[in-house]
From TrEMBL:
<dbReference type="InterPro" id="IPR044068">
    <property type="entry name" value="CB"/>
</dbReference>
<dbReference type="InterPro" id="IPR013762">
    <property type="entry name" value="Integrase-like_cat_sf"/>
</dbReference>
<dbReference type="InterPro" id="IPR002104">
    <property type="entry name" value="Integrase_catalytic"/>
</dbReference>
<dbReference type="InterPro" id="IPR010998">
    <property type="entry name" value="Integrase_recombinase_N"/>
</dbReference>
<keyword id="KW-0233">DNA recombination</keyword>
<dbReference type="InterPro" id="IPR011010">
    <property type="entry name" value="DNA_brk_join_enz"/>
</dbReference>
<dbReference type="GO" id="GO:0003677">
    <property type="term" value="F:DNA binding"/>
</dbReference>
<feature type="domain" description="Tyr recombinase">
    <location>
        <begin position="153"/>
        <end position="320"/>
    </location>
</feature>
<keyword id="KW-0238">DNA-binding</keyword>
<dbReference type="Pfam" id="PF00589">
    <property type="entry name" value="Phage_integrase"/>
</dbReference>
<dbReference type="InterPro" id="IPR050090">
    <property type="entry name" value="Tyrosine_recombinase_XerCD"/>
</dbReference>
<dbReference type="GO" id="GO:0015074">
    <property type="term" value="P:DNA integration"/>
</dbReference>
<protein>
    <recommendedName>
        <fullName>Tyr recombinase domain-containing protein</fullName>
    </recommendedName>
</protein>
<keyword id="KW-0229">DNA integration</keyword>
<feature type="domain" description="Core-binding (CB)">
    <location>
        <begin position="56"/>
        <end position="137"/>
    </location>
</feature>
<dbReference type="InterPro" id="IPR004107">
    <property type="entry name" value="Integrase_SAM-like_N"/>
</dbReference>
<dbReference type="Pfam" id="PF13495">
    <property type="entry name" value="Phage_int_SAM_4"/>
</dbReference>
Amino acid sequence: MSSRLNKIKKTEIDRGVLSQDTIKNSQGARSPADKTQACGASYTSKIKEVPEKSLDSKKDILKRFEDLLSIDKDLDEKTVRKHCGNISEFLDSINKPLIKIGKQDLRDWLRKYKENYAKATYANKVKTIRVFVRDFLGSDIAENFSIPQPKKNNQSVLSDQNLRKFYQDIQSDKYRAIFLFYASSGLRTSEVLNLTMEDVDFEKRMLIPKNRSRTKKSYVSFYNSESEEALDKFLPQRKPDDDKIFQVSRNVVAKTFRRISKRSGVKITPKMLRKWFCEKMRRLNVDRGYIDAFCGRVPKTVLDSHYSDFSPERLKEVYEKANIKVLDGE
């Protein structure tokens, strides 16, 4: 009987199917390797704890998956939303009980993204599937799905001349300020747009973005006198019921930059301005460690252990000595 059961289990594993019978019949002795597969409780214990009806409810699945991501794995809110959105699409597409998901189901869903979408989008879907299958279902059938690596960006850094040409075609005070903040601070796209009035020390021109991710560390950065002048012109136009400085979404900013790019004949994105900031700071002989600090790329452990080197006072001194200019200078 034991030999027959082992053959059945091997067949199910080879097919990559999460069979109910296989799971129920495999609740005996477990090897050390089996015990390390799932994050927390194993999938077999989930079957015991959750009524079978819940397993077929998309709402319940998404709720428990969200809990795992936000509580067990402590992922940031944006990542949780992205993973849950992907799994919602996946569950709509397979039209079968959760416990019957097989490897081919995963392949079929991923195929349309691999063939019809950008590599970054496909990579995002693969990451979600691997987390869902491994950490939520307790299975390893998705572990050999490779996550495509982005191509090396060989795009040349923006010239100062093209930067100014783009700026001349910006027609609103808000977007002039946003543009200069990106170019003079080195902050990420979301960090600039998420800045609130409390995140800015206007006297010191210092930015203290809130941490939005466990893996990307933010400290402090600064903005230059050009940005300060543009911000002073824009601030009186803000709506009083929103504490965010720029009060605009990432998608709207991206669309606006595309329109300005078309009008000016110079393609620029917020991400390109961050890259320009890094290169400009290097040309101004700023040490790479300080550039990484301005861009929020230095781990908190390093910041804590080298506080005197990366204190706000020291970073302000380095920033002001560099005297970065976007619209003037070389």
